[in-house]
Amino acid sequence: MQDFRFHNTTDIRFGTDVIDAGLHDAITQFGRNVLLVYGGQSIKKSGLYARVKSLLADLNITELAGVEPNPKIDSVRAGQQLAKENNVDVILAVGGGSVIDASKVIGSAYYYDGDPWDLVLDSSLRMDIKQLPLVDILTLAATGTEMNFGSVISNPDTNQKLGTGGPNSPAVSFLDPTLTYTVSALQTAAGSMDIFSHLTEQYFDAETDNDASKGMIEGLMRSVIKWAPVALAEPDNYAARANLMWTATMALNGIVRLGGKNSWTAHPMEHELSAYYDITHGVGLGILTPRWMQYILNEQTVSLFARFGRNVWQIVGDDDMAVAQAAIVATYDWISSLNFPMTLPGVKINDETNFDVMAQSAVKVGHLNESAYVTLDVDDVKNIYREAMQPMKFEY
Ligand code: NZQ
Ligand code: ZN
Fold this sequence. Notes:
- There is one protein chain.
- By secondary structure, this protein is α/β, with parallel strands linked by helices.
- It is 48% helix and 11% strand.
- The chain has two domains: 11-180, 3-Layer(aba) Sandwich (Rossmann fold), CATH 3.40.50.1970; 185-387, Up-down Bundle (Dehydroquinate synthase-like, alpha domain), CATH 1.20.1090.
- Strand 6 and strand 7 form a beta hairpin.
- The chain is globular and about 65 Å long.
């Protein structure tokens, strides 16, 4: 196991009564000038917006609406300006990962006089400045942003979608699973795939002596595999939504990564698809993940894939390679059963025009040729993109 330090102070409030009971005080511990950040119409349609406004009726609220999926740097710029003009004490983000991610960077940009894109390009700038406290109400189970330090911000002018880390995770996160009943089938599937991918990224790691993390990840994988189809079939099934929500948080709050060695692979490759084509993150991961697995299965990786097959998919058999291959098929079948497109043409990426530039950026940004579990160079990434143009073929 590798050495590590872990420090995370997010105050998690999980359940159905937590917002009415605690939102007001969670905010006012930081002050009375609030920047309320949200996305499109979902929180208005569900009634959550009206509920929040009523709970905070005595506070000074400035609103930043319209943060889009794959949040754009322009939303952060607008938030920076509003936060400064209104001497904001605390940010309240109500929404999915996009809203919360943008809010985290706004929290840093409040203390920065330049263009917030600088802070995305160079996260170290954020470590030298303060960050406004962030309270959030999560409405979609997927990213884990509610308990981590990361954000992913897009710049359509430069076709870049980049991760950035700040000094703080959210101060308080309200996790009420019933708020996710209204999440569409597509976003439920995409969110579940995102959770699963966070787990595979951290599971397929070269540190062999990290049974604690691998075991936790296997349990979380079984949870998302079990509950995603239930949430799709019964959107208001509390057990399904609650398990997905907590699995999402646990998958990317930093805990299961501890003691591991490698950096991620499918995410850097997917972020290029979202950067160039603005596709839904989880959908891109669903397309790429099984291809990546098939691409890296070899004599060196087979024993870990076999462990994955036995402990996650309950595949039996003595032949490691056969179990490993069956695990990749099971993964592909589970992703397809969530009903989203399984090829790049299925998300309107119909030709290879950008494969080279995307592959170069994925390798550079994600250090895929240096620190990935199985290192990939530009040609490898292009091969994986090319394989994703066709329905997946199994030769076993
Ligand atoms: O904008 P509104 O109207 O709120 O609609 C949203 C949006 O259209 C809708 N939605 C959210 N909650 C809903 C709902 N619709 C009905 N009922 C609800 N309760 O869902 C759509 C997608 O929302 P978004 O916030 O984009 O989804 P998600 O939470 O999956 O976040 C995706 C973003 O997070 C980044 C992704 O790259 C992507 O930009 N990630 C962030 C990470 C992090 N900070 O740690 C890690 C991830 O790997 C990921 O990269
Ligand atoms: Zn993700």
